Amino acid sequence: MDIDRFIQDIKSGALSDEQAKAILRRAPYEELGFAKLDTHRALRTGFPEVVFCQGKNDAFLTDIFKKLWEKNGEVLGTRASRSQYELLARCLPVQYDEVSRIVKISGQSKPLQGLIVVCTAGTADIAVAEEAAQTAEFFGNRVERIYDAGVSGLHRLLSHVDLLQKANCVVAVAGMEGALPSVIGGLVANPVIAVPTSVGYGANFKGLSALLTMINTCANGVATVNIDNGFGAGYLASQINRLAVSGKD
Predict the structure, then answer these.
(1) Which DSSP state fits 113?
(2) What order of strands is seen across the sheet that includes strand 51-52?
(3) Do 225 and 193 form a contact (C-beta atoms < 8 A)?
(4) What is the full DSSP assignment across 83-96?
(5) DSSP letter assigned to residue 149
(6) Which H or E element spans position 172?
(7) In 3D, which of 5, 3, 46 has the Cα closest to residue 139?
(8) Is 126 buried (19+), middle (13-18) or exposed (0-12) by CB count in 10 A?
(9) pLDDT tens digits, residue range 94-127?
């Protein structure tokens, strides 16, 4: 439910008092038997429920997407396979990105606000970074990308310091030893979200070494999400950017 539109519809008479009461009496979730969809999440948090697609039954996934599209007019799904996209595309106007594995139905176009910068250490980190960037864009944030700017060639990062310092939030995505967020944290005044990836050789332990580096950083203002959790980083960056934009109004 879009609360602003709901209020306008009551004021304009598009919704009668009885219709409005009937809507407000509905449970704050939609019971599907196999799932309870949180249709009031956008009212509480500002962002609608997002679907984690990986491992979901085909029929369940289709019904969830249909219902969320009906309720919200848009849907974002993460970790979707191509076969899941093809399944959804048979009955819904979905779009799919192979790199980030995001499948979505876009609602009305939104003005992109503020500035989030998403930065990767290497090209192999881009899949996770794109999950973060496209999540943030879906929620109405302006995103700039700086890719392949890791510490093994620090000059590549330093050439973008002006952009990094303009951002309300920086998402730093890195595997291997995971040093990138510490470097960025020492260059900017605003929050840095560190995202460890599972990119690396054996002693990387599928992202554990990068995770430990990031949570032990000596740079201030750096917070770390889980390994390969681009969605979590994009969501948190959206919240930070939203606060920054509202503070400037």
Answers:
(1) E
(2) 51-52, 75-78, 102-105, 95-97
(3) yes
(4) HHHHHHHTTS--EE
(5) -
(6) strand 169-174
(7) 46
(8) buried
(9) 999 999 999 999 877 778 899 999 999 999 999 9
